[in-house]
Amino acid sequence: SGLTRPLIVLLASLVLFVILAIIQGSTTFPALDAIAYDNLPPNPFADFFVEISQLPAETTNRSSTVAEASAPVIGYAVSMTQCDPTKYSYDQAAVLFYSIHRNSIRNPSSGSKYDYKLYAFVHPDASDCAEGLERIGYEVSIRKSPVDKNEIKGNLKEYVDQASCCQEKEFLKLYSYTLVEHDVVVHLDLDCLLFQPLDDLYDSMVTESKARSQLPLQWGNGTKNLPTDIEAFFTRDYNLVDPPRRQPHEIGVQGGFIVVKPNIDIFNQYKEIIIEGHYTVVEGW
After folding, report:
1. What does the alpha-carbon distance between residue 129 and residue 56 come to, in Å, rounded to a whole number?
2. What is d(CA 257, CA 280) in angstroms, rounded to the nearest whole number?
3. What mean pLDDT value characterizes the chain?
4. 101, 29 in Cβ contact below 8 A?
5. CA angle 104, 106, 110 (to 5 degrees)
6. In the chain, is it the N or the C terminus that has fewer CB atoms within a 10 Å radius of its CB?
């Protein structure tokens, strides 16, 4: 069926990730070892988590070595729009944390030179999950959507209630641009994993380096056309269109993976674009 192949690919990817984790098993991750995943209690906060204060320093957002203390820190952000502790939200957040950890300087075998800090933008409707995310290791901010749908003027207002899973709550991702204490911020959906370090992307954004020549760009004439100042990286959402019938620029951004340079001015520009609302399903923005 149409779903069989994607499910097989997903399962194969998860099996591969587990195998790689076993092969690289010299790095332990006590924070996740300390979390009991079986038989979640009715109150997930009763026994589900070990207090962060009881965990070794290297499993939290604090650096534990001289090298880590001087390493540039990438912000990794997620958004949560609704909370149901029985629907694996914590499992996803913890496994994503683990994959980020394994692909950072805190795992010497990764080869990465970048440290990390975790953030979660949590809508008030999902605030019951805030404590759990904090105990896993995320810095939680309770935020409403940066744009109220009643402010939207144009055609977008007709579509926003049917958009994706979360309507205007999807715009929570834009808060990634407000984390100006970081040179680079990566926003990921909770169902994502990192399988290898993203240092080439970060190097390309922070400095003009040879890393640019190693970037696997799908469209265009290679890396020679990259802007001097790269403000963001993204992938396109090919699952939502028929690629042979669309030009690359007509295919929308996949919101599950976005790498940005934080900038309050750009954050405000996005808000203005959304409020103007010049959007249709056929033409896009």
Report:
1. 24
2. 23
3. 76
4. yes
5. 50
6. N
The residue behind tokens 């997930």 is 44
Model's pTM, two decimal places? 0.74
pLDDT in tens, 111-155: 999 999 999 999 999 999 999 999 999 999 999 999 888 888 877
For residue 153, the number of C-alpha atoms closer than 13 Å in the C-beta half-sphere is 6
Tokens at 42, concatenated? 């009715």
**Sheet of strand 115-122: strand arrangement:** 139-142, 115-122, 73-80, 185-188, 253-260, 232-236
Distance CA 126, CA 119 (A): 15
Q: Is the pLDDT of residue 87 over 50?
A: yes
pLDDT tens figures, 49-58: 443 334 444 4
Residues 90-129: b if buried by 16+ CB within 10 A, e if exposed: bebbbbbbbbbbbbbbbbeebebebbbbbbbbbbeebeeb
| Mean of pLDDT values over 223-231 | 78
Handedness of CA 92, 62, 50, 126 (dihedral sign): negative
The arithmetic mean of pLDDT across residues 195-214, rounded, is 86
Nearest to 149 by CA among 164, 160, 134: 160
Query: Phi/psi at 262 (nearest 5 deg)?
Result: -60, 140
Q: Which of 56-70, 79-93, 159-173 bottoms out in mean pLDDT, i.e. has the lowest?
A: 56-70
**pLDDT at position 280:** 74
